[in-house]
């Protein structure tokens, strides 16, 4: 087994001609971390991952893996392995031969390759399917073969580029839990690129939110959700109301708003009511035109339901006000 290693990006920049895809980012990922790079399309996530993998050159700055600057090392010499979005399995090779492929590239003999490949397939519970071709496997099974192929070289860090995007919603949740379990068992860092905040929240010890080639915020999911640093972060992770308040900009979680038909509070009109099972989502517009969303537990909402068009008062505990950076 490879030793888990710390990873550091020091002022790493990626330029493609005139485009700065990654703009001097600094980042430390301790060994054994599940890290998600999260952000909208085009924010520089894949470029960052590809630079770590060595599939893309670094324009400026250093990538440090363990004690070593790896900027100029080829991908196979870095101690990283990459799992791609499309799995990219060879259609004419069995599951075992797919997994053995990176070992063949390293010049390992056939017998050892076969043993190691079978071990890796066992790790992802796919040993009994090792003779099958990719077309004879389900999407989730192909995904596990791809994972075994990435892990067979004993990487210190596993890099995953949108690994769940090809799976249906049900499988996504199941495979997500499996990825987390594998990461915990292996004890190495996984760096997982996603544009889904739900996926990042569910998986990550460390979420890196990127915007326009820069890091907007890095932290544990709960810390980010409870204290979004900027308006961008608050909007991107969702579940927050953002409004101007006495010359500053504030956010308040949607589940912290209360609605009543009278009394004190900010006057508003109910725009829409959406039943979601566990909670009811109530869209509101204040007299000054601020759009808000209150998420009300089902039982509380139906003890005093509101309808679209109704005039209400919205209130919140001042302790729930969170100030955003300008
Ligand atoms: P993300 O993974 O967050 O969607 P990318 O890292 O793929 O973002 O892209 C970041 C920016 O760099 C985008 O503006 C994209 O168009 C640009 N870009 C990515 N790859 C290339 C490339 N090979 N050549 C030129 N521009 C690129």
From TrEMBL:
UniProt cross-references to Pfam families, sorted A to Z: ABC_tran (PF00005), TOBE_2 (PF08402)
Alphabetized SUPFAM superfamilies for the sequence: MOP-like, P-loop containing nucleoside triphosphate hydrolases
Residues that span the membrane, as ranges: none
Database matches in PROSITE patterns: ABC_TRANSPORTER_1, ABC_TRANSPORTER_2
GO molecular function: ABC-type transporter activity; ATP binding; ATP hydrolysis activity
The keyword Ribonucleoprotein appears for this protein: no
Domain ABC transporter intervals: 7-237
Domain of life of the source: Bacteria
Compartment(s): Cell inner membrane
Keywords: ATP-binding, Nucleotide-binding, Transport
Gene Ontology cellular component terms for the protein in this record: ATP-binding cassette (ABC) transporter complex
Broad class of where this protein is predominantly found: membrane
Keyword Transport: yes
Family to which this protein belongs: Belongs to the ABC transporter superfamily.
Record's protein name: Putative spermidine/putrescine transport system ATP-binding protein
């Amino acid at each position: 087994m490879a030793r888990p290693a710390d990873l550091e990006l020091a002022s790493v920049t990626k330029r493609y001609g005139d485009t700065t895809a990654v703009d001097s980012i600094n980042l430390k990922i301790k060994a054994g971390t599940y890290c998600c790079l999260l952000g909208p399309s085009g924010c520089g996530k894949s470029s960052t991952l590809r630079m770590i993998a060595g599939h893309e050159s670094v324009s400026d700055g250093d990538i440090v893996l363990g004690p070593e600057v790896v900027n100029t090392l080829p991908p196979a010499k870095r101690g990283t392995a990459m799992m791609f979005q499309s799995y990219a399995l060879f259609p004419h090779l069995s599951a075992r031969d797919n997994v053995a492929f990176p070992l063949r590239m390293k010049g390992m003999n056939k017998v050892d390759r076969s043993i190691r490949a079978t071990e890796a397939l066992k790790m992802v519970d796919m040993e009994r399917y090792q003779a099958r071709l990719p077309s004879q496997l389900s999407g989730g099974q192909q995904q596990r073969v791809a994972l075994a192929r990435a892990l067979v070289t004993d990487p210190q860090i596993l890099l995953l580029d949108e690994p769940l995007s090809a799976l249906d919603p049900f499988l996504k949740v199941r495979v997500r839990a499996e990825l987390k379990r594998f990461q915990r068992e292996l004890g190495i860092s996984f760096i997982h690129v996603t544009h889904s905040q739900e996926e990042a929240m569910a998986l990550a010890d460390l979420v890196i939110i990127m915007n326009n080639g820069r890091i907007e915020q890095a932290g544990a999911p709960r810390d980010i959700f409870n204290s979004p640093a900027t308006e961008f972060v608050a909007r991107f992770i969702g579940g927050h109301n953002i409004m101007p308040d006495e010359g500053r900009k504030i956010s308040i979680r949607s589940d912290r708003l209360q609605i009543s038909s009278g009394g004190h509070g900010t006057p508003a009109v109910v725009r829409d009511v959406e039943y979601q099972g566990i909670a009811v989502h109530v869209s509101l517009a204040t007299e000054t035109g601020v759009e808000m969303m209150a998420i009300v537990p089902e039982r509380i909402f139906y003890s005093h339901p509101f309808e679209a068009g109704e005039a209400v008062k919205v209130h919140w505990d001042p302790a729930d006000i969170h100030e955003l950076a300008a």
